[in-house]
């Protein structure tokens, strides 16, 4: 593995998450694009950021609670099974789930920052005719793009909640499978011993 990845925590997160391939192949990413288009009437108007600033802090609290819950799932034996790479280029299931939560939380923080920037400047996009000067055109398209990207990040952050919840559920089911196997092995041993 590249030494830069080991030394840079953001590169380690990005590699563990799967990079752009994971993002562009994500159904949450694609649905976020569709919802951003559908919700155009909401984000084209100033004040849309109030929704972000009222919703995201609660979602962020949920995320941090979910991350704490994830860290408490299972015992040390279970964590040692899912942690560690099989080879230099692979990512362990432990790091995949951590990267999913990191992605979820970073998107939430980014959506809050973008909403604060939009609120600070209270940029107003005129849906009327745009002046035909270069500066007016530039500001119109800049504002439009800022609103669109900011709202998309908000929607994407909300939808990645599903990914984080399902990652947590997947790990919980692995732990349950492991415990079921242990209980079955104990039951077989107990039945064998009592039958002797």
Produce a short descriptive summary.
This protein is mainly α and 196 residues long.
N-to-C span: 53 Å
Number of separate helices: 9
- Report the sheet with the most strands, covering strand number, pairing sense and barrel closure: none
Poorly predicted ranges (pLDDT <50, ≥5 residues)? Answer: none
**Counted beta strands:** 0
Radius of gyration: 23 Å
The portion of residues forming beta strands comes to: under 5%
Apparent shape: elongated
pLDDT average, as an integer?
83
Description:
It is a single chain. By secondary structure, the chain is an all-alpha fold. 81% of the residues lie in helices and 0% in strands. α6 runs antiparallel to α8 (93-121). The chain is elongated and about 95 Å long. It starts with a helix and ends with a helix. The model has no long low-confidence stretch (mean pLDDT 83).
Properties at a glance:
9 helices, 196 residues, mainly alpha
Detail the topology: elements first, then pairings.
Elements: H1 3-7, H2 9-17, H3 19-24, H4 27-38, H5 40-43, H6 49-72, H7 76-82, H8 93-121, H9 134-195
Helix pairs in contact: 2-8, 4-9, 6-8, 6-9, 8-9
């Amino acid at each position: 593995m590249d030494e830069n990845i080991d030394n840079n925590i953001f590169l380690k997160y990005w590699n563990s998450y799967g990079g752009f391939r994971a993002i562009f192949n994500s159904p949450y990413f694609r649905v976020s694009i569709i919802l951003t288009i559908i919700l155009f009437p909401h984000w084209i108007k100033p004040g849309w950021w109030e929704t972000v600033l009222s919703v995201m802090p609660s979602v962020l609290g949920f995320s941090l609670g979910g991350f704490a819950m994830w860290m408490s799932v299972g015992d040390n034996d279970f964590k040692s099974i899912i942690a560690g790479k099989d080879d230099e280029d692979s990512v362990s299931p432990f790091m995949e789930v951590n990267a999913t939560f990191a992605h979820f939380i970073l998107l939430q923080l980014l959506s809050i920052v973008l909403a604060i920037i939009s609120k600070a400047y209270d940029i107003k996009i005129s849906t009327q005719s745009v002046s035909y000067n270069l500066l007016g055109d530039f500001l119109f398209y800049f504002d439009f793009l800022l609103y669109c990207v900011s709202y998309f990040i908000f929607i994407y952050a909300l939808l990645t909640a599903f990914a984080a919840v399902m990652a947590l559920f997947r790990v919980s089911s692995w732990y349950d499978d492991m415990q079921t196997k242990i209980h079955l092995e104990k039951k077989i041993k107990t039945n064998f011993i009592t039958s002797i």
